[in-house]
Amino acid sequence: MKIGNIDLGDRPVMLAPMEDVTDQSFRQICREQGADMVYTEFVSADALVRNIASTIRKLHIAGAERPAAIQIYGKEVGPMVEAAKIAAEAKPDVLDINFGCPVKKVASKGAGAGLLRNIPLMLEITREVVKAVNVPVTAKTRLGWDHDHKIIVELAEQLQDCGIQALTIHGRTRSQMYNGEADWTLIGKVKENPRMTIPIIGNGDITSPQKLAEYYDRYGVDGIMVGRASIGCPWIFREMKEYLRTGEIPQISNREKMSLIRRQISESIGRIDEYRGILHIRRHLAATPLFKGIRNFRETRIAMLRANTAYELNSILDRIENEYLQ
């Protein structure tokens, strides 16, 4: 699969953009574990234009992360074009437009998935961003606003006509948020549409190597993007890529997995500070499958998620590793 001149190979597996998750450290670890391309956290066009320092920092891409995409979102043509130009100066491999974020503070203001209620504006933003930059432009969206407005088959053609070079489709409507099961049937219909010539990337509920392979075979997509299943589990990309190659899931030791978790903690603290770095990483600690199935783990889990210092947190992880992860 190619996006512009970026060759991602056959059946690539990508790390989805996720706010407060896909920071630089996590992106780099996921690339090392086999992700074929990674995406930044959501970058607000308005904040980028206003030169907000925390937003500007999101644009930095290390060499070890590449290929990497910067994803921007906004609700007006002018700021989106200006933000696209600023983002392009950071030299991403791909510039992605977020038409899929369902959270209220984004969608209710008319950005992200909110643009599914204003298709003419969505298309105008896409056309103007494509014209404004020399970076390959892609888009990520959903099936439609709600069950009665699943417009993705027609919308995909319209976005392609605007000049995007790949389209990622999350198999839910905006009204579903992340509830229920992702419906890939319409993603498959987009891929089957003879008018579509750009790569189609599927997203939603890919939680295991087996499901990844099944959905590649069933829906014929060009690429698959993995989001929530990677939180606290960056090694899932290694498992998925190996399964696609051999039909076997590699054995990764618990100690190696713990080492990756500890690295995330250390790098999060180094990037921000001790207190906020630990707050940032708690989502990964809460979600990781590494601790699932451990008996009588509730009190330890609570202590782990309440730890406020690196010493306290690492002491708890030492105890977990010594007592449970032999």
Model description:
With 326 residues, this protein is α/β, with parallel strands linked by helices. The chain is built from 14 helices and ten strands. β7, α7 (152-161) and β8 form a beta-alpha-beta unit.
Short note summarizing the structure:
With 326 residues, the protein is of the alpha/beta class.
Which properties best describe this structure?
326 residues; alpha/beta; two-stranded antiparallel ribbon; 14% strand
Count of DSSP strands: 10
Low-confidence stretches: none
- Spatial sequence of strands, sheet with the most strands: 3-4-5-6-7-8-9-10
Task: Characterize the main sheet.
Answer: 8 strands, parallel, barrel
Helix content: 40-55%
Structural class, from helix and strand content? Answer: alpha/beta
**N-to-C SSE string, H for helix and E for strand:** EEEHEHHEHEHHEHEHEHEHHHHH
Give the CA-CA distance, first to last residue: 40 Å
Rg (CA only): 20 Å
Mean pLDDT: 96
Question: So how many helices?
Answer: 14
How does the overall form come out from the CA principal axes?
globular
Strand portion, in percent?
5-15%
What is the fold's blueprint, element by element?
Layout (H helix, E strand, L loop, with lengths): L1 E2 L2 E2 L5 E3 L8 H9 L4 E8 H5 L3 H5 L10 E6 L3 H13 L4 E6 L4 H4 L11 H14 L4 E6 L9 H10 L5 E4 L14 H8 L7 E4 L5 H11 L3 E4 L9 H11 L7 H18 L2 H14 L10 H9 L3 H15 L2
Parallel strand pairs: 3-4, 3-10, 4-5, 5-6, 6-7, 7-8, 8-9, 9-10
Antiparallel strand pairs: 1-2
Helix pairs in contact: 4-6, 7-8, 9-10, 11-12, 11-14, 13-14
